[in-house]
Design goal:
Shape: globular
Protein name: Trafficking protein particle complex subunit 11
Largest sheet: none
Helix content: 55-70%
Structural class: mainly alpha
Number of domains: 1
Order of helices and strands: HHHHH
Number of helices: 5
Organism: Chionoecetes opilio (Atlantic snow crab)
Number of strands: 0
Length: about 110
């Protein structure tokens, strides 16, 4: 996905790459990747729906509270079951803080210089 970000292919990022990335991070219980992709997904540069941004934000809030995120849309029942178990195991042993490398992601916040 780095290539798409660096060349600013936002259309591809918002249509399929980001969705598949979130789904993959959920299915593999990759907490760092899930956090980074979720922050990127909620940013202004990817024009996703407010409902989708709210869903992803709720999943981030769940993670911050030590609860597994809700499954990503389109996740099969088998993958959902395996992912839920993996998240439960991970969250029972995960130690804070979670470090996310933001240098490779599309910014989710924009702060104007004054």
């Amino acid at each position: 996905m780095w290539d798409y970000r660096s060349e600013e292919w936002r259309g591809l990022l918002q249509s399929s790459a980001s969705v598949l990335g979130l789904q993959c991070a959920f299915n593999t219980a990759a907490i760092t990747e899930y956090f980074g992709l979720a922050l990127e997904y909620m940013g202004k540069k990817l024009s996703t729906t407010d409902e989708e941004k709210k869903r992803v934000h709720c999943n981030l809030s769940r993670l911050l509270n030590g609860v597994a995120p809700e499954p990503e849309p389109g996740t099969s029942t088998e993958a959902r079951t395996a992912a839920t178990e993996a998240w439960s195991t991970l969250l029972s042993t995960q130690v804070s803080p979670i470090t996310v490398d933001r240098t490779a992601l599309v910014p989710c916040l924009e702060v104007p210089a004054s």
